[in-house]
Structure formats: C-alpha cells, structure tokens
Amino acid sequence: MITLAGNIILSSGGSSSSPYSPPSGTILSSFEAPESVPSGLAYNGNNLISCDIGFDRIYIHSGVSSTILSNFSSPSGNPSGLTFDGTNLISCDSVTDLIYVHDGVSSTILSSFAAPSLNPSGLAYDGTNLISCDNNLDLIYVHDGISSTILSSFAAPSQNPSGIAYDGTNLISCDHGTDLIYVHDGISSTILSSFSSPSSVPFGMTYDGTNLISCDINSDRIYIHANA
C-alpha cells in the first residue's frame, strides 16, 4: 500500500522493495515557474505547489506542470519555503521569521510559530517531524512534530542553505552559494554525495514520490531530476 506522508511516499506491505536510487543532476524536464522569483516547492500527492518571493503568492499546479489551477496570497511578504504534512500546507517567511500551518492548501492559517532562527529558507517533512533550515546560522533543525520545539540541529553543508526535501530515505539540501545539491545520510550532517544544481541560484526543493524537483531564482524554472 502506498501512503502519502508530506512530501514523501511511504510504502508498506509487500515482499520486497526497490533498491534506493538517490536523485542526480540529470534533468528529465523543466518548465517555467509561475513568476520570476520561485522560492519554495511542495507536493501534496497530486499537485506541485510553489511560492514566489517576489509576488508573495502560492500556486497550485496541475500535477507537475506549468499549468496553474489556482493561487492565493502568502501569509506575509517573503515566502521562502513550503512543505506538506499529508493534511496541511506549511510555509515559512524570511522577513517575519515565522512558520505557518495552513488549513489544507489554502490561505487560511490555522497556527503559526517562530522559526528557530532568522531567515528560514526551507522546509521538509519526514512523515513525523518538520525539518527547517535557515540562512542566518546556516543550520538544519529537526522539530518535535510540527512545533517550535527543536529536537536536534546540525550544520548545513555550506553557508547559504536555501531549500530542503526528504525522499523517504535521505534529506536533500541545496545551497545558493555553492550552487550544489547535497544528499545527506539520513537526516544528518553527513553528506553521501553532491551534484551541481541546474542553474546558479537553487532556492527550493520537494520530492513527488519518484523524483526530486527543484527550482531556481536565476533561471526562473522548475526542474524534474532523474535518479542516479
């Protein structure tokens, strides 16, 4: 049985599972982002969701495509990251330094809480806990569920972490200073591999159950990555 848990697809039952294949720098396809400064991505099991830090809007795509089904205003003026917990969209803002829990995928906000530090720049969900990163202390944080309580933290691979995702096995992060995407060993600071981002300013990632998806604010494009 396949069960959605945030940005990951968890499988249970069956006699065997496919060998793990990490994402790679090979690009299967790409398309133009809705606006010129794409800053975060999430996947809700059916549709890609993106946000734009220039136009302060959140977009629901039709599947994983450039077609936009609907859009709404972000909670504040600088949406910098998105994830989905299986029920609700979660966003963060790099000016208010808050993390927002939306009512489903809508502009209605159920709750909000302070990010661990200034300039939150990415969100992911591992099926149990929220994970966030920031551009102030350059740390990645594992939250206690979806709350402001931090269970643990560790250093990002470089000094400008700008997006994270979880593929069901490993955390993946990107850095807009090094222009690299990093595959972590589980949810830890240990890096298994890294590869060049498709363009020069990676700024958001998600995982759709099969492929890593990233966006870049230099090329204004969204990229679907092949697995290694």
Task: Put the structure in a nutshell.
This protein has 228 residues and is mostly beta strands. The protein contains no helices and 22 strands. Helix content is 0%, strand content 54%.
Q: Mind explaining what this structure looks like?
A:
- There is one protein chain.
- The chain has 228 residues and is an all-beta fold.
- It has no helices and 22 strands.
- The strands form six sheets. It has a four-stranded antiparallel β-sheet with strand order 3-22-21-20, with no helix packed on it.
- A hairpin with a 6-residue loop joins β18 (180-184) and β19.
- It is globular, with a radius of gyration of 16 Å.
- Mean pLDDT is 93; it is low at 1-16.
Helix/strand structural class:
mainly beta
As a percent range, the share of helical residues equals under 10%
- Number-wise, the strands total 22
Note the gap between the termini. Answer: 25 Å
- Quickly count the helices: 0
